[in-house]
Task: structure prediction
Amino acid sequence: MNLNTNINTNIDTQKLKNTLLNFLVPIIALVLMLVLVLTVLVPAISGIPRLQDQLGTKSRLETQLRDKLSALNKLVDFQTIVDADEEVVSRILASEAKVPELLTQVDLIARESGLNVDRLSYSLGEATEEEVALPYSVVNVSLGATGSYDQITGFLANLENAARLINVSTFRFATESGEESAGLFSITLVLQSPYLQVESNAVTDDPINVDVGDPDFEAFINKLNSLRFYDITADTQFVELEESTPEEIEESVEEEQPTDETPAQ
Result:
């Protein structure tokens, strides 16, 4: 007995392709969208606060630069006044030590006040830890003189009204002995005169806080102009320069005036 069985299997491949495409394409699209969100959108969203901070910083800088430009234009309009004010300030707060001019000024003030100058020396030396932290350098001047009470107080007043800045660091005195020296005092002072070396560096975003039209600024400049300037001329006799170390100045103060001391306020 022969049994012939013919099985014909017809597979519709087109339907299979359509089914696979309908299933795979959404999955692939979903994966691509997820990758896009993770790589682009999430970092962009997380960076929004930082971008807002940057925008605020740039906005404030723009406002500051506009104010600075306005201030610069005003300074240009008053160029003559600004130059005159700058010259006054530079003479009061020197940019260099200018030791001969400083000692000559101290000597002139002392003699004009009636003091008899016995010794005058200066010291630059190395800055201490406290002085290193200061934005300026200092010239130390040691002055030994003799005079009456009125002459000494007059000297201090004239020193205060002198244009170049001079601070009294140490003031010691002793009564002179002898009938001829009655009413006289021997004094030793350590004076300090600051000077500031200025380096001009162009800084874009630093504000300008000077207003030449401000009443307080005008009063300040008028106060500076009222100080006495000891101009050095061709006829000025410079005192002989005697340089000492800071230690020598301190030792001379200790040796000459061992008893009475009035620290500077």
